[in-house]
Design a protein that fits this description.
By secondary structure, this protein is an all-alpha fold. It has a single domain, classed as NusB-like (N-utilizing Substance Protein B Homolog, Chain A). Helices cover 72% and strands 0% of the residues. Helix 2 crosses helix 6, helix 5 crosses helix 6 and helix 6 packs antiparallel against helix 7.
């Protein structure tokens, strides 16, 4: 049997720490929704469990950033996703697709160290690994629209965080 060529880029991604952190974040968001619990509380529970049980992998700092960020900004993230779903609702999407989209949209809006193309590509890769055959192209289409507004959202967020000068007496 002939050996299959190895796609080094895909193989690297699947081994990369950030890819693994994103995948764990998807798992946690998916589980939190399925159990109807707060994602940040579930994250804390898993981090605590990892300190007590060596068989449980520790929670990567970037997983914490993603899950905490999505949990804190869930309404805006979900509202953004909803606004770009044509003839769909967020509730109709597979739960794993919701989790992947939430992470990607949060990264597009808040993770200034993650180029938009990386956030979208990672979401598509996660969809290939975890979801339906149609999900990668569907998520790519939705995120392609979100990418267009992400710079304005980032700029608005930065403006609200910027310190305001003291008024002169």
């Amino acid at each position: 049997m002939a050996e299959q060529p190895v796609d080094k880029k895909s193989a690297y991604k699947k081994l990369g720490a950030r890819h693994k952190a994103r995948r764990r974040a998807v798992d946690l968001l998916f589980e939190a929704e399925a159990r109807d619990v707060d994602a940040a509380d579930l994250l804390d529970e898993r981090a605590e469990l990892a300190t007590r049980d060596q068989s449980v992998a520790p929670v990567h700092p970037y997983t914490r950033t993603l899950v905490g960020g999505v949990a804190d900004d869930l309404d805006r993230v979900d509202g953004t996703i909803e606004s770009y779903l044509q003839d769909w609702t967020l509730a109709r999407l597979p739960a794993v697709d919701r989790a992947i989209l939430r992470i990607a949209v949060w990264e597009l809006f808040h993770a200034s160290d993650v180029p938009p193309v990386v956030a979208v590509d990672e979401a598509v890769e996660l969809a290939k690994e975890l979801s339906t055959d149609d999900s990668p192209s569907f998520l790519n289409g939705v995120l392609g629209q979100v990418v267009l507004v992400a710079p304005q959202v980032r700029a608005a967020a930065a403006a609200t965080r910027a310190p305001r000068p003291e008024p002169e007496p």
